Amino acid sequence: MKENAQDLVWRSLLYVPANNPKFIGKAHTRGADAIILDLEDSVPQMERPGARAGLADAARSVAQNGSDVLVRINRPLPEAVLDIEAAVMPEVSAFFVAKAESAEHLRLLEEVVADRERALGLRLGHIGFVPMVETASAYFRMAEIAGALGPVEIQDSQTVLFMIQASFWRRLE
């Protein structure tokens, strides 16, 4: 994880299925600012337990050349909790929150993450959040979602993917 907010600028992001050792093994050579270990759509449901079990090794592998390590977590909540239990670790900088639906959803996930950070002796707020708005109902709640964790910067208005950079800054202070 970067030491200050100025370093949390990602010009390039590379999605890597967390269940594919071949892709994981080469990801650090691709030059991406951040590598997203995907536990969601690119990993079949039956393979997710194995992907979670290998996440610590995958995170160390993809971080070899200094890329930030991010993890895309699942929805619904039971899957997200399993992902969080596996993914909160020193090597991970942030979670891409698939299908973020509301501010309450993000606050609940933030609480689960904080409990896990405490249990592992990590600094509270070590893991940041990148909510992904993927439904029409969430689209109409973007202001609420953006305000859940701090001011928002629109990354790509075409896909309505946005990052809560201020929440990262607040967590790094």
Description of the structure:
The longest helix has 18 residues. Strands 1-2-3-4-5 form a 5-stranded parallel beta sheet. The chain has a two-stranded antiparallel ribbon with strand order 6-7. 40% of the residues lie in helices and 19% in strands. It is built from 8 helices and 7 strands. Helix 5 runs parallel beside helix 7. A hairpin with a 4-residue loop joins strand 6 and strand 7.
- The largest sheet has its strands arranged as 1-2-3-4-5
Unreliable runs:
1-6, 151-173
CATH architecture: Alpha-Beta Barrel
Compute the average pLDDT.
84
Give the CATH topology.
TIM Barrel
- Indicate the structural class: alpha/beta
The count of DSSP E runs of length 2 or more, i.e. the number of strands, is 7
Task: Output the number of helix runs.
Answer: 8
- Distance, first to last CA: 13 Å
Q: Specify the CATH class.
A: Alpha Beta
**Helix amount:** 40-55%
CATH superfamily: Phosphoenolpyruvate-binding domains
Shape: globular
Total count of domains? 1
The proportion of residues in beta strands is 15-25%
SSE order, one letter for each helix or strand: EHEHHEHEHEHHEEH
CA gyration radius, whole angstroms: 15 Å
Outline the biggest β-sheet: 5 strands, parallel
